[in-house]
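input
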Amino acid sequence: MRLKGKKVAVLAEEIYQEMELWVPYYRLKEEGADVKIVAPEKKTYKSKLGYPVNADVAAADVSGKDFDGVVIPGGYAPDMMRRYPAMLNLVRDCFNQGKPVAAICHAGWVPASAGILKGKTATCFFAIKDDLINAGAKYVDEEVVVDGNLITSRTPGDLPAFCRELVKALEK
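output
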């Protein structure tokens, strides 16, 4: 129960990648964290394969002060997440407060749109590396990259390293 007392937001939107949402969700719960699904609206969202996730709260109803960190799963959901100012504000607020912001795969689109990548070293799914570079990040091809409070990974295969670094960052 290394994370007892910690509250973590896991973002959701339509077409999320199943493992990239559920593996960190359950890994954080296993460590005792209070994990909330945050989305544009408080409703049910479906994954790439149709698996449902129910949002606990709408992003407009919370802010960075309500959480100790935020996880952004990939899939195509991040392309929709970044269209909502409240989702970007939550990510930006957590980042600016020094709280862990963890993005995997296509989730790099959200920190890019939130304007928090300038000068950071990060990784992502190779297809969006130009987006990270254009947002000011230094792209590297590694399973997990930790640069301050930003944690990034490339694919579902990187989830063990991603979750390890996420738990470590939330322990601080």
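quick obs: The first strand starts at residue 7 and ends at 11.
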